[in-house]
Write a structure and sequence with these properties.
alpha/beta; Rossmann fold; 3 domains; 5-stranded parallel β-sheet; 3-stranded antiparallel β-sheet; 14 helices; 15% strand
Length: 424
């Protein structure tokens, strides 16, 4: 269905491009015009990804959607640079003046100027999302910067309406583009605003307890009304806000660290970022707002009778919740931590898993790497016959995924959440 959507829209976009009565003055202008159509469509696709459509989230999981979001963002970045560059080159050649002078002339036209501002905002967002820059930014700052995307969309729509030749070619083209923008913006408003507002009004979530855990972690217990209607499952996560304690725009993704029982929810976080460090100071009774549940790392994806759960650091939280799911079958748990004292929820894991829990400690090195193919098979000889659920730091998860591929564990048996967008 996704490929059909993309291909169908690609056909329509090219049809509109060739339907324009007034051809571009030269090749540069023609290329720029086509790149502008690609850019508008990719912005629509990005909006649909940001909307966190349940049908996509449950089918593919947040990790794969995050990868698509990143690649779409890079495509938008390059199209946002190349589209105006080719347009300006085309007009500069036609008018026989330098490109810089043509740029100044274009900037005097309000719709074009708005498009240039949108390009500048896109460059800022993408530049600060590059992994090197991203590591230096707190999650809260990175998330706030991404609000600029909404300004980009508004400016892009205005620019397209007034300057888009293919947009104005005929009534059919206008219906198509307005319909496409309505679909994307409607999905965004529904998924990110309307549904969360209705759910939070219904459930009236409040902090009921705050419990310190090992390794500078803390568990927050949340209660509310009719929580069984959230349809949350072990292995999923929510986006959490604590208005009154934190600014309204400050939101963080935290997994459920216990299987939802219809009366309460529990999250457990390590004190890394501003929000996670401040959780231990949450007053009981603090109002809680959530978006979700999200994530496809649940037993609904199982294809085998036995399971292997692999956790690293604070990534143990969804693994701990999954242990309460009776559909896991025969289960082995591997928990990678620097030191046994840092094993968050360690006692609960031992109570639930017993001797099926393997606590893997120490620094990773040539002599201490439990996730090589040889060592993993030693720990779990029948690993190829199990569903494998993985959550932990990106480096560890990547290493495990490479090993599972080396061992030829079928992809449908591997379920991972990397949370590359999460900070702390």
């Amino acid at each position: 269905m996704i490929w059909a959507f993309l291909v169908a829209n690609a056909v329509v976009v090219h049809a509109m491009y060739f339907a324009v009565d007034s051809p571009a003055h030269n090749t540069f202008g023609a290329i720029g015009r086509l790149l502008g159509l690609y850019l508008a469509f990719m912005l629509v696709v990005q909006l649909l990804l940001i909307a966190r459509l349940p049908v996509l989230d449950r089918r593919f999981g947040m990790d794969r959607l995050t990868a698509w979001h990143r690649w779409t963002g890079l495509s938008i970045f390059w199209l946002a640079l190349l589209h105006p560059a080719f347009v300006l080159l085309g007009f500069a050649r036609y008018d026989r003046i330098p490109v810089l002078r043509e740029t100044v002339n274009f900037s005097k036209q309000t719709p074009v100027l708005l498009g240039m501002i949108a390009v500048g905002l896109i460059v800022v967002v993408v530049a600060l999302s590059v992994r090197t820059a991203r590591k230096r930014l707190p999650y809260e700052v990175w998330h706030a910067i991404h609000f600029l995307v909404y300004a980009v969309i508004v400016l892009a729509v205005i620019h397209q309406v007034y300057e888009g030749t293919a947009f104005k070619v005929n009534a059919v083209a206008q219906v198509y583009w307005w319909g496409l923008w309505a679909l994307a913006i409607g999905a965004l408003l529904t998924g990110r605003l309307i549904v969360p507002l209705l759910r939070n009004a219904r459930h009236r979530l409040r902090v009921s307890a705050v419990v310190p855990e090992a390794g500078d972690a803390v568990s927050v217990h949340v209660s509310g009304r009719d929580l069984d209607r959230l349809n949350a499952r072990a292995g999923q996560f929510f986006l959490w806000r604590f208005p009154g304690h934190n600014p309204w725009w400050q939101v963080n993704p935290f997994s459920l660290s216990a299987a939802p029982d219809g009366t309460s929810l529990r999250l457990t976080a390590k004190g890394i970022g501003t929000t996670s460090s401040g959780l231990r100071d949450l007053p009981v009774g603090t109002r809680v707002l959530v978006e979700g549940p999200y994530g496809a790392m649940t037993t609904a994806r199982r294809v085998r009778e036995k399971s292997l759960l692999i956790a690293g650091g604070i990534g143990v939280t969804p693994i701990r919740a999954l242990l309460e799911d009776p559909d896991l079958g025969d289960t082995v748990v591997l928990y990678r931590v620097r030191d046994a004292a840092d094993a968050v929820l360690g006692d609960e894991l031992r109570d639930l898993a017993g001797d099926r829990l393997h606590l893997l400690t120490g620094r990773t090195g040539p002599d201490n790497n439990p996730f090589t193919a040889r060592n993993l098979v030693t720990l779990v000889p029948d690993v190829t016959d199990r569903d494998v659920f993985i959550c932990g730091p990106a480096a560890m998860t990547d290493a495990v995924l490479r090993t599972l591929n080396e061992l030829r564990v079928p992809r449908k048996q591997v379920h991972a959440e990397l949370f590359r967008l999460a900070g702390g």
